[in-house]
Amino acid sequence: MVCHNRSISLPASSHPFVLKAEEELHKLKAQVGSRSLTCEIMLDTIKAVGHVYECINDLLCMPSNQNGLSHMQQRRLVDLELEESIKLLDMCSTSRDNLNVIKYHVRDLESAIRRGESEIIKSGVLFYNQLVKKANKDVKKQVTRKSEAMAGDVPAIGLLLSETRDITTSLLHCVFSILLKQTESEKTGMWPLVSGLVQKRRIVCKKEIQEDILDVVEALEIGLESLFRQMIQCRVSLLNICCL
Q1: C-alpha dihedral (21, 27, 28, 32), degrees to nearest 10
Q2: CA atoms in the 13 A half-sphere facing the CB of 96
Q3: Where are the alpha helices (DSSP H) in 144-244?
């Protein structure tokens, strides 16, 4: 009787998709670790991370790679990534939900600015600060969760998944750090300016500041929603491999 064994065929580090993802990750590491990270760069970075997940998903959907990862020797890698993906999705979901809460508060504050309700605006600014700080703490708690590392010889796609996970974790941490930085800046922070204008009764003249913040929060929320869907797709592809 002839015994047919499945061969392990996983993407090498020289595979075009792997090289493309590695190039993006190299750029992302520099961006996320930069002290000059702004909201605009943050939005571009979220999109770039999403592109990496798309590239990884393309690799996961290749029949030869599915065959290799479904082999017993690589199933531990798949199981680990499925476990870690839940943590990352929870973090992204929490960040997205917090941005949603902040967005609706900003809209309420915008209405108060239009009506010229000074006391409500003052308390609203303080509450906004509290919301951002709470959101930042929520992410920090989840960042401190230790991720299990793969032992032994890890294939290229495993390294990509691990590095992308680390980048995504750092990115989610930076989202509220940037909003917090804008909030607490004494010279360039938008909210301190709003408070000053309220005291001078020049609220209406600076309505654009409020709208700028709303635009940023909404853009971040949309960006994280897209990133969440791309991470979900990668998880689905990993689950499909488990069914082979």
Answers
A1: 170
A2: 15
A3: 156-184, 190-199, 207-242
Kindly list the averaged pLDDT for each block of 10 residues, start to end, along the chain of length 244.
Answer: 43 72 85 79 92 92 84 81 92 94 87 77 83 89 64 77 91 86 59 52 47 82 96 94 82
- Name the 3-class secondary structure at 227: helix
> Nearest CA to 143 among 187, 206, 87?
87
| 17 within some domain | no
151 lies in a domain? no
Which residue range(s) make up the domain with 229?
38-143+159-242
Say if CB 241 and CB 69 are below 8 A apart.
yes
- Report d(CA 202, CA 140) in Å as an integer: 37
Indicate whether 104 belongs to any domain. Answer: yes
Given this model, what pLDDT does residue 158 score? Answer: 86
Q: How many domains does the chain have?
A: 1
User: Which 3 state secondary structure label does DSSP give 1?
Assistant: coil
Q: What is the dihedral of CA 211, 226, 47, 175, to 10 degrees?
A: 60
pLDDT for residue 6: 40
| Cα–Cα dist 213/105, whole Å | 11
Q: Does some domain include residue 122?
A: yes
